[in-house]
Amino acid sequence: MSKEQPIAAANGTQGTTDKTKLSLNRVFGLGTGILMVAGLMIGSGVFKKIAPMAATGLNETEILLAWITAGIFTMFGAFTIAGMATITSESGGVYEYLRISMGNFFSFLFGWIVFAIMGSGSIAALAFVFAQSLNTLVHIPDPLFALKDVSIGNFITPFASSGVKMVAIVSIGVLTWVNYMGTKNGGLVNNIVTSAKILGILLLIILGVFHQTPAEASAAVNTPVDTTFSGTSVFVAFFGAMLSSLWAYDGWAYMSSVTGEIKNPTRNVPIAIVSGVGIAMFLYVSLNYAFMQVLPLSELAAIDENHIAAAAVAGAVMGKAGTVVISVLIMICTFGALNACILVYPRIYYRMAQEGFFFKKAANVHPEFRTPYKALVYSMVWSIILTISGTFDMLTNLVVFSGFLFWILMSAGLLTLKRKGIITAKVIGYPVVQILFLLFSLVLIINTAIVQPLQSFTGLLLLLSGVPFYLYFTKKYRS
């Protein structure tokens, strides 16, 4: 019997008014879990990353290998999460796994960085991209345009793109309300939107693969880019391309945060994570193959960061209508990913509050809707603040260094728990997969520290900024 069951029974017989004692309902089946993983992963990244990857000078085969390699290591991470998911039926995901394997301090730092930057920043960024995509279809007025250059500290620009930000804020508020009113609501929205974006991407893949390239352009499309790389230069270019694709794969681990609302979680959570990553990997590799069947790498490489590579490809296949189709598809993808993020991240704060490492009210469960409604509100407020600030992209870039530290800890935690016999279930690839994933994460940290020392150091400082909060919560709620 899980920990939730006796609590729920007590609630049913005694009608307790203590909202921290109410349990979340297990309403998500395996299908919803799989679509949630895919929904978290498939945002706007896959439509853009082919351009910087083409600019590395790699040929088509090498670019596809970069996507496949990144997908394989992401799958290694999924296998590791799947192993950890067999030891608990509680919400919280990676936070809970780190708490069990590494203790309260490291798990708190993970939860802190998710709340402060990674989770809330992702919500802000996705909402902003969704609003930008809408703006390409229907012009959004900018009522505070005259104040666009006003800044705080030369990096916070609260009034820039005011109309787009307002739409982003409204989208965060609406989806928070949907998830506030019931977990099933958020799951239903996720299932509908994720199914739509998978179908849209499959359609784009089919159109690209079967696109008939004009004869005069076929040679350029089918001829590999001429490179004069040394062995070291090829590795650097390949590693850089793989880093670009890893951004598109991000999000795979966070579906585990809703473990407390998944039916038969020790079985369904591992299957959902591995299956969701597999779906995303297939779509990513196939879509990039389709891109390169339509346009030569030289044209893809020439697309600047302010334009979307997929729009150029769709334009070549469908004409002017292609731009509209891609804008709609990106809107659907970012809206779905936004809803999934709003659904899963507050469950981490909810679990932290249960353990006494977050604001106590975040552990409250709504007596009617059985949702962690206070945690949803905390997440919404901070995400809106980051949206207004306009700094979410910078902040999320700063935590690359600290983010991979937790994948190292998670891999080490699984190896430790498995060796001690605490994890008794079969773990795919143990121990080779977990060791390779740990080493891969370590290489990424070292590379990031070398290539971006200032950002890495700043990210580490932001991570350590959680230490005073850890001491505060320890003293206030766990004394």
Shape: globular
How many beta-strand runs?
Answer: 0
Indicate the CATH class.
Mainly Alpha
Number of H/I helices: 21
Strand content: under 5%
Number of domain units: 1
Q: Mind telling me the C-alpha Rg?
A: 22 Å
Largest beta-sheet details: none
Task: Characterize the structure shown.
- This protein has 479 residues and is mostly helical.
- The protein is built from 21 helices and no strands.
- It has helices spanning 4-14, 30-41, 45-48, 50-54, 60-84, 94-102, 104-137, 162-180, 183-209, 215-222, 231-249, 265-294, 297-301, 309-318, 320-354, 373-389, 392-398, 400-419, 432-451, 453-464, 466-477.
- Helix 19 crosses helix 20.
Task: Give a concise summary.
The protein has 479 residues and is an all-alpha fold. It has helices spanning 4-14, 30-41, 45-48, 50-54, 60-84, 94-102, 104-137, 162-180, 183-209, 215-222, 231-249, 265-294, 297-301, 309-318, 320-354, 373-389, 392-398, 400-419, 432-451, 453-464, 466-477. The chain has a single domain (25-477), classed as Amino acid/polyamine transporter I, CATH 1.20.1740.10.
Structure keywords:
Amino acid/polyamine transporter I, mainly alpha, disordered N terminus, 479 residues
